[in-house]
Amino acid sequence: MKETKEIFNGFRKSLQVSKSSCAMMMFNVEDLLALPQLKQGKLPKTIEPVDLKQALIEVGGILEYQLKTKNIHLNFVEDGFENTRFADFKILFDKQRF
């Protein structure tokens, strides 16, 4: 049973790294695509409501991966978030530029 948990945790960590890597690659691609428009003084934005908790979790995942590659450890704790006024809080921003 203990070996199964360790294998599962290894798969979960691998999936988190893959997800963070994909997000970072997508940000880089979006930045490259926006560069010519930025040089022309135009930068299209897609403003949409986004769940604050989910946005923080995504940012935490990306930061955690980047810091681990530099041998820096980060604990991202989301305990108690549901019991605050931010539980279902939406923010407006351009997800591609976040």
Notes on the protein architecture:
With 98 residues, the chain is mainly alpha-helical. It is built from 2 helices and 2 strands. It has helices spanning 2-39, 52-69; strands at 47-51, 90-94. Helix 1 (2-39) packs across helix 2. The longest helix has 38 residues, at 2-39.
What's a quick, concise take on this entry?
This protein is mainly alpha-helical and about 100 residues long. The chain is about 55% helix and about 10% strand.
Sequence-ordered SSE layout with sheet pairings:
Blueprint: H1 2-39, E1 47-51, H2 52-69, E2 90-94
Antiparallel strand pairs: 1-2
Helix pairs in contact: 1-2
Spell out the key features of this protein:
extended
The pLDDT mean sits at 79
Low-confidence stretches: none
DSSP strand content: 5-15%
**Helix-strand pattern:** HEHE
Number of strands: 2
Q: What would you call the shape?
A: extended
| Oligomeric composition of the shown chains | single chain
